[in-house]
Amino acid sequence: MGIKIVKPTSSGRRSATFDDFLDITKTEPEPSLITIKKPQAGRNNTGKITVRHQGGGVKRYLRQIDFKRDKFDIPGKVMSIEYDPNRGARIGLVYYKDGEKRYIIMPLGLNVGEEILSSKNKIEIKTGNAMPIKFIPAGIQVYNLELEPGRGARVARAAGNLASVMGVEGDYAQIKMPSSEIRLVNKECLCTIGQVSNPDRNHIVIGRAGRQRLLGVRPTVRGTAMNPVDHPHGGGEGKQSIGLRHPKTKWGKPALGVKTRDHKKRSNRLIISRRVK
User: Fold this and answer.
1) What is the pLDDT of residues 103-112, one digit of tens each?
2) For an engineered disulfide with 67, which of 129, 152, 189, 259 has Cβ 3.0 to 4.6 Å away?
3) Is it true that domain 3-202 has CATH number 2.40.50.140?
4) Domain boundaries, the chain
């Protein structure tokens, strides 16, 4: 992917940048691998808003992505690279030798026509191949990483993300996460060789509020701009600081940088080094 800059014909387009989509080889999704995405609007099953600032957006289909990579020892050929409106990474349509089609998260450097393989045994260290962590040498970059064997990938799935294998000892492998956290992961967990595609996505500038609305993001009002009855930060004449020792949410709970992870969580024992702030 490349970043496209357009003529500054308006204040919104002056600062905006766009995806050039030059790496896309197919524009229509595979009909057998899509479902309609129902609008959520941040509401629960009773219709109450539980997540603010969500709603609207362009209608889209959900692509069924293969996060488990459980087509073991059956070669697959990448037939197309496609855009997925539900994620930043590119997706690839893979045709397997037995006739099945699946979407995968495309790694950087994998092209149309190349073959990939998934196995529970040791196979070639090649971009796009998936295998257990115990067979991967230290220093190799991986993505689509499972945290529990057979549960499907949970880590390093976003555009440009990668994790690094630091070594295997006993039943666990040491993995450096995208956040720089070093964590123990079961060595039987599957992961895919390479880095997630489309790393330039982080450099795209939205530029105007209308593009955010197309993405399903509704307007957000600062607490300091509200009245005291509506927000703990509200009130005062003109622009003022929040006037509190610590920031709070609309409901009076601590906000901005407060640790929310349960200090008694069982998986805390698997974290060797916390992420760097």
Assistant:
1) 999 999 999 9
2) 152
3) yes
4) 3-202, 225-272
Q: Which residues contact 141 (CB under 8 A, 6 or more apart)?
A: 162, 163, 164, 193, 194, 195
**How many angstroms separate the CA atoms of 190 and 125, rounded?**
13
φ and ψ of 166, to 5 deg: -105, -15
SS3 136: coil
Confidence label for 240 from pLDDT (cuts 50, 70 and 90): confident
CA distances from 249 to 217, 220, 222, 239, 257 (A): 19, 13, 11, 19, 12
What pLDDT is stored for residue 276 in this prediction? 75
Pairing of strands 163-169, 91-96: unpaired
Name which of 99, 42, 87 is nearest 63 in CA terms: 87
What is 225-272's CATH superfamily?
A: Ribosomal protein L2, domain 3 (4.10.950.10)
pTM for this predicted structure:
0.89
| pLDDT tens for each residue of 69-118 | 999 999 999 999 999 999 999 999 999 999 999 999 999 999 999 999 99
Kind and range of the H or E run holding 11: helix 11-15
| 36 and 61 Cβ atoms separated by less than 8 Å | yes
